[in-house]
Amino acid sequence: MKNQLNRRDFIKLVGTAGGGLILAVYLDACASDAPIPATVTPLSPTSTPRPPFDWAPNIYLKMDQEGILTVYAFRSDMGQGIRTAIAMLIAEELDVEWSSVRIEQSPTDPRYGDQLTGGSVSISSHYSGLRLAGAVARQMLVEAAADVWDADPAGCTTEAGFVIHPDKQQKIPYGELVEAAAKKDVPDQTKIKDASAYRIVGTGKGHWDAPQIVSGKAIYGIDVRVPGMLFAVIARCPVFGGTFTSYDDSAAKTVPGVRQIVALDKSIAVVAENTWAAIQGRNALKVTWDEGRNASLSSEELRSAAKGRLPQLGSNDKVMDAVYEIPFEAHATMEPMNCTAYVHDETCEVWAPTQNPQAVQTQVAAATRISPPAVIVNVPLIGGAFGRRIQTDYAVEAALVSQAIGAPVQVVWTRDDDIQHDFYHDMSVHYASVVREKINIPRLQSSGSRSPVPTGAWRSVENFPQAYPTQCFIDEVAFELKRDPLDLRLELYSSRAAEVIKLAAEKAEWGKSLPAGQGQGLAYHATFGVTHVAYVAEVAVDEEGGVHVRRVVAAVDCGEVINPDNVAAQIEGGIVFGLTAAIKAEATLKDGRIQQSNFHDYPILKMNEMPLVEVYIVESDQRPSGMGEMGVPPIAPAVANAVFAATGKRIRHIPIRPEDLRA
Amino acid sequence: MPSYDLQINGQAYTVEAEAAMPLLWVLRDLLGLTGTKFSCGMGLCGSCTVLIDGEPARSCVTLVESATGKDITTIEGLSPGVSHPLQEAWLEEHVTQCGYCQPGQIMNAAALLQKNPHPTDAEIDVAMEDALCRCGTYQRVRKAIHRAAEEV
Asked: Considering B15, B49, B77, which residue would you say is the last residue of a domain?
């Protein structure tokens, strides 16, 4: 029940508000259906100018005397829309017009809890706290207005940035009340809204930053400019775990604009007046690498070793089984890794496009031997992250370069740096099996690369390698049993899972007849066990073996929907991200290094390959369960299953390539 | 160091730059016009697209000297405010996710609409094929281009 806020929520909020009071919450809807009255109660004599005053009732928001609400986004937005969603929840409870909302990125602050943006939990773990943050502020404004009128606060209502008198004849704008509200104690009772009174939550708000983005004014990490700053590009050993033994920088130093060469622990930074000069300087640097013990590692070797750790295919008569293979995947964010840092006077300020600002603070502090509170982390907008920016490597190296040169510096990764020095989604091999006598959801036995290749979270993390083999193998089992893949799934899954499976199948007209070479494929997954997503993919396979995903029908149950348009966008985006892995790109290891370097050999999905995506959202009064990653996992198996329907070929690895399907 | 006269967004600039420096870095690092984005550096992704005499150009592989004497338009100069039909359509269709590639997408689309005010889906595919978006906004980019085409 979404209106029941547990005691832990109160303690969290009181702890942040510092009022030491226990909040009790009751559940009446607070919005009034009455039209806003015309008479505004005059408060401040216009002849006496007062200094500007901002009221900050808690760490989530402030309001100025114009009634402008500024919300502090304490999680990182990398395109998933969290800045907007946080603001929507607070603005909803506070009853302000959306046009009065501003968003500022918060500093690092332990009072926000862990600020790592990952696991798609920013809303689900802060839902109650954010609503309370807004509701408490609203209550304090109401009490301030009631004082002015000498009215009963319980009879006052709010709407669109005004407190409205119980008689509905007078109103006071919030901005006029902030000074008085600031003197109010944090209330011991407040109301939160019932869903029937929502005016913002559940409406499509897009992304608040969009006007800045489409006009080129949005500032991403790579756009940060600090007076006197220099730019650096770093030479890193192409083999994982390697380091340099020596380098000759004589040619690099002659590149116009190159200022300085800085040796770091295992890499060498070329510092220059602009990014281009830094890139040219690095190209001119002659480095002798000690490639170390990994210099002969290859994907084939790692995959074969991973297979060896799993049961032999066909070794047990009592089970149906299959083995599926997933390669290393890169994040390939459109904004390459970068960070700007300025170390001076025992302090460090960094501008890091990061999902993990508190870890940046800690790691930069450790590397520079500056005390953590003296490391200030600013989080600008982020040009894609997908888990890559949980890592702090690029921020630490920027701080170290700045410390070495005594000037602000922006370290920029080129695209080949980005593809070749990622923290990859690990390669994995999966043995899927089902006991013949007891058909159930397949059992997976999985093995990763167990290699020195750096690995890390990649959008949906373990869910992608769970969903792909599981959902492909359910189709294989259905085929062997001569069952329809939809019917078998409805036998294996129940409740919310079955509901989205049925909805997607119905909307896609599951089982409709398609021309030769085309097919439908179904897959379902509950990412992190909380958000239920089912896809029906329609695929055409051409004579050359090319896979064309024409249409994807998606059904989603993510609990209460904050920003429905963004839920659809996250599904569309998850499908595109997953399709790149399913039919386009992989990172391969040879001689201890990643062979790909840019979008020509790590090709991400293009406009002309975009399927028509239709999204159906299940109405729900469950708490919101997260959307950032949930669109990814079911697409690869839905496509693989559709490819089988189209061609009769079971492809048990991704990406599916034309050579796999050529007749 | 050679000096170049550039006409960017209707404004005259004189910059001193290496002859081999791509226009992208002139815009971003020398002139502070950071709306044009760096992503691949090889003309593969379209994030750095600007208009040169109305033609879409990958500024990361366009030498600064080749842009002298021509009319350069960056995302900052596409419209006063956010008033170009494409920008308005982008907001209406809620296209942006991370947003990083979007200036390039919009500049590509602007070049398309200048030549072809009412493109079909197939024509959009051709014109936008090499404008990459890792967030997967393509479906909305397509809708926004159609919406803007109606406005033009």
From this structure: B77
Q: What is the Cα–Cα distance from B36 to A216, expressed in whole angstroms?
A: 7
* Residue B53, pLDDT above cutoff 90: yes
Residue A565 in contact with partner chain B when CB distance is under 8 A = yes
| For A274, nearest residue in chain B (alpha carbons) | B29
Q: Which long-range contacts (CB under 8 A, 24 or more apart) does B9-15 make?
A: B9/B72, B9/B73, B9/B74, B9/B76, B9/B77, B10/B77, B15/B64
Complex ipTM, two decimals? 0.98
| Domain span at A487 | 460-661
Of B39, B81, B102, which has the smallest distance from its Cβ to A213's Cβ? B102
In angstroms, the CA A5 to CA A623 distance is 11
* Alpha-carbon distance values, A545 to A603, A660, A662, B96, B122 (Å): 17, 7, 5, 33, 21
The values of phi and psi at residue A206, to 5°, are 55, -145
CATH number where A377 lies: 3.30.365.10
Which residue in A88, A79, A92, A121 sits closest to A204, CA to CA? A88
Question: Hey, what are A643's tokens?
Answer: 């490819």
Min Cα distance A78 → chain B (Å) is 5
Size of interface A-B (CB pairs under 8 A): 198
Whether the bond into A633 is cis, omega within 30 of 0: no
Residue A516 and residue A371 in one domain: no
Residues 391-450 of A with CB under 8 A from B: 412, 414-415
pLDDT digits (tens, 9 = 90+) for A449-488: 999 999 999 999 999 999 999 999 999 999 999 999 999 9
**Which pLDDT tens digit goes with each residue over A240-291?**
999 999 999 999 999 999 999 999 999 999 999 999 999 999 999 999 999 9
Give the pair of three-digit tokens for residue A576.
């595109």
Task: Calculate how close chain A gets to B23, using CA atoms only, in Å.
Answer: 10
Q: Indicate yes or no: CB of A277 within 8 angstroms of CB of B18.
A: yes
Q: Tally the domains of chain A.
A: 3
Summarize pLDDT for A557-615 with one digit per residue, the tens: 999 999 999 999 999 999 999 999 999 999 999 999 999 999 999 999 999 999 999 99
Q: What is the pLDDT of residue A47?
A: 53
Residues of A in contact with B103 (CB under 8 A): 213-214, 216
What is the tally of structural domains in chain B?
A: 2
Give the pLDDT confidence score for residue A190 in this predicted structure. 86
Which among B43, B77, B111 is the end of a domain? B77
Query: What average pLDDT does range A191-199 have in this prediction?
Result: 93
Q: Is the pLDDT of residue A616 over 50?
A: yes
Cβ–Cβ gap B101/A332 under 8 Å: no
Whether B124 sits inside 8 A of A607 (CB atoms) is yes
pLDDT at A104 over 70: yes
Contact of B96 with chain A, judged by CB distance below 8 Å, is answered with yes
Beta strands in A459-542 (DSSP E): 518-527, 531-541
A512-521 as b/e: b if 16+ CB within 10 A: eebeeebbbb
Residues A398, A491 within the same domain? no
The model's pTM is 0.94
Across A539-547, average pLDDT? 97
Domain range spanning residue B106? 85-151
Q: How far is CA A521 from CA A538, B47, B110, B122, in A?
A: 7, 34, 37, 25
- pLDDT for position A338: 98
CA distance A31 to B68: 60
Averaged pLDDT, A350-369: 98
